[in-house]
Records
---
Amino acid sequence: MRFRILGSLEVCGSEGSTLPLNAPKQRVLLTVLLLHANKPVSRHRLAAALWPDRAPPSAGGIIRTYASGLRQAAELGDRDRLPHLATVPGGYQLVLGPGDLDLTLFDDLTRQGRRALGARDAGRAAQLLSEALALWRGEPAEDITLDSDSMVLLTGLAERRLAAEEAWADARLQLGGDAELVARLQVIVAEQPLRERTCGQLMLALHLAGRTPEALDAFRTLRRRMVTDLGIEPSAPLQELHRQILAGDPALTQAPMASRGPTARSVVPRQLPPAVADFTGRVAQLKQLHSLDPAVIVVTISGAAGAGKTALAIRFGHQVADRFPDGQLFADLRGHAEDTPVDPMRVLHRFLRAIGTAPDRVPSDPSEASALYRSLLAGRRMLIVLDNAASAGQVRNLLPGSPGCLVLVTSRSRLPGLVAKDGAVPVLVQPLGETESMHLLRKIIGAARVDAELAAVTVIAASCAGLPLALRIAAERAAQRPGMGLAWLADDLATERRRLDTLTLGTDGYTQSVRCSPGLTAPWR
């Protein structure tokens, strides 16, 4: 293993000795490249990490100097072997082998452990997950001062560690549990006192160890905190586990944990679409989403057509997927499509089937279907993305009735009804600024082509008014004519009548068009 970031940053040389990488900026540069291992990282992204407040005018040259020094200090200059630091269009890419980074090894061992757990090989699952967790030496990159965008990634890593701890506890519970399991779960519960799943595991571990009074006390402590801090009761499955422990139910010592845990289910839907590869900006909105109170059930993500609401919801969804072990549901409600918006009953029936309801058992009555849906979601931890909603009424029957799940609703409307009546937290998506717009065009069109025609690209960015969809369509137009200059595209976009024609792509009118946004003007003009 050459690089370690699951704790303080450490770099080992080819001979196994620790390399003295002491320059602070080089350490920041390396950490950001490791967090995006085997993926290109633009110079703009690196500049934002190295100078969070304001990058100097000579940032590009300074980054080249840092990269050159990093190649030498960390033995990354040989292109014929792994690892090496490659220069790619617009930035750099740290190319690593399978065993070069502790984070990659952690993810691989965790995946193998989960597969073994699903195959009911608890012994192998416990061993693999224990090896994965042993790679953690502290908080990830704990000795590096990073920008807010990178800190969002580190928050996701901490959640992945917790999910692995819970999977390891599941495996150990299937093997019968012991004092080590109890002690480890007590530490996690102390750090995460409102995490119901871990508390349920601790209750069961204590009961199996003959410490039933302590198990019951753990439930009372959690309930008191939830009622006091959140104003809610523990989930129905956790209350059922408490009842079983009180009654001394023999099933607790016979059935495997996988079939009785408070969040275990046989069907785990994973419906989130792929995240946008060249996602740009939205640092403030992602930070707001990551800092949500655990009691929040509904979030509205609103903004103009083409502002990137769906991309933000999906990006965040993938970052926090591990927080929702019971899966993710996704529906495009087509609230602003040219044809009729989707009937919420159709979505409700599809969701019910996705979470294990037989088609012939789905009620035809809307109120009965909605009641069944809320009953099945009770105690589960699921992420539900309701995209492109027309109104609060279109989504209300798709909302869970108890905490544990999180619903992200995207809409051109701010949906004040959901905020006022359902306690939704509003997140507003504004157009991108000039720097971010140029950054996105640079990613898609290519740095060389953008730099060669900077004046035309500046006009293109301004004409797209900071709307990511408009910028992507414009970049696609440019990509269709790779041998031509970009002045023709700048001219088309500078005229409002031709601009609306230019910013319509394909036949899918509402998802690949910004015709619905007349009078486009750049917010920075």
---
Amino acid sequence: MSLVKLYDTTLRDGTQAEDISFLLEDKIRIARKLDELGVHYIEGGWPGSNPKDVSFFKDIKKEKLHQAKIAAFGSTRRAKTTPDKDHNIKTLIASEPDVITIFGKTWDFHVYEALRITLEENLDLINDSLLFLKQNVAEVIYDAEHFFDGYKANPDYAIKTLKAAEDAKVDCIVLCDTNGGSMPGEVAEIITKVKKQIKTPLGIHTHNDGECAVANSIIAVEHGIVQVQGTINGFGERCGNANLCSIIPAIKLKLKKQSITDEQLRGLSDISRFIFEIANLSPNKHQAYVGKAAFAHKGGVHVSAIQRHPETYEHIRPELVGNATRVLISDLSGKSNIMAKAEEFKINLDSKDPVTQEILEDIKEMENRGFQFEGAEASFELMMKKALGTHKKFFQVMGFRVIDEKRADDDKPTSEATVMIKVGGKIEHTAAEGHGPVNALDNALRKALEKFYPKLKEVKLHDYKVRVLPAGQGTASSIRVLIELGDKTGRWGTVGVSDNIIDASYHALIDGIDYKLHHEE
């Protein structure tokens, strides 16, 4: 079974999408998840373009990734300079990635109009940029920008640009459909011709402007491409990039080619929803393979048929990609999901135990109120322990008060929180200030509890996200708060839902502290 390597550019190309912006910590979290998924390359960003990407390449070195190589992205040298003096090239090398990927011009139209140099000069800057990088980095990938449009306009010159890269002995040449308008038949025909002239391993990078990015990537693999670039959920500029959530299962399950393991494939739906959450966007329920509705059936003939044989209306078994069959009029998917999570959390749960059904009913009721457990598995684990009667109550919050005050028009608001907690028979009454009401409440809770549980000093609040749930009630809408906490050994997410943002935040914070205490014990 031939290996197709997966090159994820969610952290670079994906962030060029409208409405998507990741903090540095977001990018690190996503990189961890991508590594767990089994992608071979994670493109972390363009270190020459902004300080955040420079910091990413510095911080990612502290992470213990299992298999993924970190790639830095940039461009060929500028005209009228040499690679050793080009700021972009030097910054790429200084970031010390595992791999460097640079793009160059393939379309003669771009050489004349964008670079304003001769066609020969463009070949020189492609070749010497890549030669210089190969002397300084173990692995170099070349992205042939606008390749398919360039080939259609001037096939001889487009091939010459690839040969300039091949002569530099790059590790992979990636054919890019940068404008996203090529059709699958064109892609297949052009790749066939390229392979007769270029012996370097080839990759594919497609955009979705013609709604063919996934189809073009898959047909490229069928024609011998060995590296596929794309993003989780198809995030990307304009209409997006090739969606790896569709490409990965297609490669493995449909084309029968090796890419990631069966176990890793079962994490696909989870990482799709995780990255939607981190991007603070609602998951696309109708997304192929990983969407919540991808294997949902509603009434009538469909339900009757899939209850006998799921294959009648499902093209794959949803469990292969971590999804589940759903019957919308009476949801039958939950119990198997609960059993899988219980096993993951090392909680002994019997599928025939009435408690399992109780947990399922609780989940359905909570999801109806707006709870979502993707990215909040600590809250899910605590909920299961409460249902099983194995949850230990380490403390009781007897009450809290949060005051926000603005004394003058030009002054910043001040926030103060007061909490009263009970641990055993002892009561602690404490106040603390913070940068905003939630931070003040977090500080007050920690201040009160650290006297009893010093280990809580290790806990840091890493992320805090708020989403207004669609209910058409304006400022009276429900709020979902998702937070991430961490200590020296790991990180965990919790969730709270309320029509009051402070209350929703309080519940998420309490779960986060509770989770830490349970795992310490």
---
Amino acid sequence: MVETVISFLYISVICLTIGSGLRKALSRYISFPAANITRLIVTGIIALTVAVGWLSIFVRIGAAVHMAVIVLAVMSAYYSRRELAEIFKSVRLKLPEAAAIGCVVLIIAYAASRGAFHTDTGIYHAAAIRQYEEYGIIRGAANLQPHYAYNSSYLGFASLFTLGFVLPNALHTTTGFLMMLFLIDALVYLSRFKTHVNHYADAVKAAMIMYMMMNYTGCISPATDYAVNLMTGYFISEWAGLSGEGTDDDVYGILSVYGLFLTTMKLSAAMCVTVVILPLVNYIRKKAFKKIAGFTGLGLACFAFYPIRNVILSGWLFYPFESLDLFDVEWKLPREYSLLDSSQIKVWGRCLFDVDKLDWPVNRWFPVWWEAQEHYDQMLIYAVLIGFASIILTAVIRRRIRPYVLVMFMMIAANLAVWFFTAPFVRYGLIFLLTVPMLAAAGLMDLKGSFGIGRIVIIALIGICYCSRIDHYIMDDLVFVKHNLAEPYYITQKPFDDPETGHVELGDSGITVSYPLTDDEINSYYDPPSTCYLWMLERCEPIGYTVRDGFKAR
């Protein structure tokens, strides 16, 4: 725990200073919203993730890159020292508030230092992080294991703070760090509930707290699902809280770049980019073509590394979307692998578990999927349906809907539509599922006197739908805390799983690849390059005589 708390503080300082310096540098050209600590840290997170994404194409993310980041953080701190001083002066915590924040840090650090890893962390998250550290990127890495082609930029961010070059065990504290950051931010924001003109942002903050409660036991894992849901929740809350009548168009532009960045974390958030509609229309109306060009350039800087890495890893622009077949490179993952992978994701998400059922129409697979859902998940989906109906009702009663609110709801609806028709695992779209009912309740509360009894009934129904889910996860969290009290991780963090591995030499290249000797499908972080699947090694070969030269299909 001690090691985890120190890591939280270290990541906070690095991201805060770099975020502050970047904000000051860009503020000459862009109007930013009022600065606060969370916004600066998130800016730093995005900046570092993008930087790692670009750098990894050329160099490995090791000690040299980390030292450069420290130097950049020091320079940024000096460059924006006055702005940082003003922010810290404005933070006046009373003893109870400071104590509450300290408790949050310790509560999150407890879970982030022990417990069970997410299944996908064993399969590929940890091994992909190690690839960033050791090689930056491996051409055709997907030929070792298709999961490497998923290419979440979050794993690059995580690789920057493992500190394996100085510590005996690599850290994996970034998910816990995000959870700590956004939980404190949400609690501070909600403490000012009565001062807010509308409560859409409050609703999203509340949904984020519920999301964190439901995934508390997994924050030891650098899991892409957790990270993208947390960052997406904050993105929606910022859109809801910052945008509105009288807001500078640049705010919409900055948030649109944020929405595009989320795509690099995981394609399940890809439709967040639809919010670009609003700033684009506003700038076209004003003929602000320089602004359009500027934000387009910023967006490309924050996104272009992602498709480039995709092509290097797998030969596909976006994996597993074989319809976009644009490149014919030596290391390209065979088309049949992509077809099988995308088919499996869809049928597993629909709880069919058989790729022969891929073409089943919605009316055939939906009953199977519905019956497979837990009761509390079914109740959540009921709440979402009530929520969307309430949102439409609220708009009818008000007889208008502000453009920024409309775009926000369209973006959420688009993400849920893609989620439902592609791979409706609840965990993939959980932040959107939690957010819709809360936004609906906030909209009803803000009607101020209209539709009195109806409002109470609908809000009560939404609350009832949440009850079973909240009860289930609160009990899970309490049991987790109790069962892990005896775990010996009060000083250091629990290390990545370390499976027993075998090795295969590929051809006469001298390159060996490790694989697990058990049937647990736990990929080795400690023995790169690695794969979960021995059979994949039988179907690929090295391109050259170094790992970074890459691998191709036989």
---
Amino acid sequence: MATERSKVKTGANAVIFVVFVIGILLSINVIGSRWFTRVDFTQDHIYTLSPASKALVAKLPDRLTIKAFISGDLQPPFSEVAQYTRDLLEEYATASKGKLKWEAIDPAGDQKLEEEAQKLKVPKVGRGRFSKDKREISASYLGIAFEYGGQVESIPEINATEGLEFQITSIIKRMTVRKKKIAFATSEGELSTAANPQGGHGGLQIVSQFLKDYDVVPVNLATGDKPLADDVDALVLAGPKTPMSERAKFVVDQFLMKGKAVAFFVDGMVISAPRNMQIPGMNGQPQIGQKNEAGLDDLLGSYGFTIKDDLVLEPQLNVPGPVPIQGQMFLANYPTFIAATKLAEKNSLLDHVKMLALPFASSVDYQKDKQPGLTATPLAWSSGDSWRQSGFFLFDPQGNKLKVGEDKGPFTLAWSAQGKLKSFFAGKPYPNAKGEKVAPPAPNESVAPGVEKPLDESTGTPRILVVGDSDFSSDDYLRFGQQLPGYGSDLLFVLNAMDWLAHDDTLAPIRAKSVQSRPLTYASASTPTLVKYANIVGIPLLFILFGVIRWRLRTARRRAAKL
């Protein structure tokens, strides 16, 4: 009788336990449907919406509608991509507090829905479908359409999860937030964002292709009464090759005094081929390094920075770069192509940047006492084995290796700074729009309408970025980004720099989020096979062994209880 009561009690406990577990699972599902969350253990949290994306949609000024056209018969891997897309959009909706609404639509042969998808710029795309014996191509939908304030934007085709958050956040930002404006100087032979750059050296077309979230404009600093409009947020001087006029320097200085930001990508030395010059023992025309007369020494010096007229050379930490050999360009390692691996990685300018490839870079010094209100941060250094070459430099990749100099590194190659600034022209005559020197007005003296009154000190918090190199941002080197990771990192650094200069931190944290491959390394060639079978056979055997041991222990306890 006691045994029967015990069995009834045990059965009742089991039923109650099962009901209790089912109740907990149902509660979790109800709570999860209303409050979406996810635990993400990946290093870059690639499956979790970034705080920047959450902040953007939380501040939406008006309602944003997203329609995800997703076919119901998608096969792997597209079915997994579709599920990731749904989860990501749900996170956006949760973070928006009701401002962002989205729905998943399966056109599935419905003519009206297919017409709507076409109208919203999401076409049907052929995708591969694998079966046991064959591979088929079938047309399906997997794209997103955004509607906001009469605007329509879309991601027509989604084939991978990598970079999807960046695409979505970029589109939302473009549709809902005023584009910030970045000006690129063109008056001193700088690298140009135009389709046909002038001056015989590479342009910035690759960089400009990635700046769709900004309004990019060229400016001539030496002409016009007001070359930099009030709505310009940042200015870039990339690779000036001719002396900057006093008027241009005044425009740059006053732009900083208004609390804006300026990037100086300036070469300390330039490599050129003098006409009609031959050197015995060299094939073809020689290339010689000489000081770059950009005329910025006094302006940058007043802010505390000095771009030295030298070349920093690395004996080992270098990357391949294009060099002329017998009239053709080849990739070759040479000490002028620096691989800077010592970086201020915690700085937002170097977010996800592990190395900078800096061709023909010069060292940059900084004197803190020149601007006490400015806080400067070094960003990149050469190695302790590096040395610098000043004065005459013969660029001869085909010749013997360069002799290591005595002026050894490490040397600082890039700086960022922000804070209060005193004007370079404070208390000095300044050039007006005609280039004429004009005495500065007295502190309380009024000026005629339309006449500019220079600022002696910054009114906001200006930002300055100084890199002793411009080639790293040019098409000549960025075109190797897919082949050589160092130049790909350069592009990421430039884009981070544009965000930093424009005081726009929305996209920088999510631009480089991606699924990273982390292959295992082994000392023996047979180890991968052992690991493979250990996973296939070993882990199941461990579970079986655990079950057998647990079963034996329970059997032993029962026998002991009977005694």
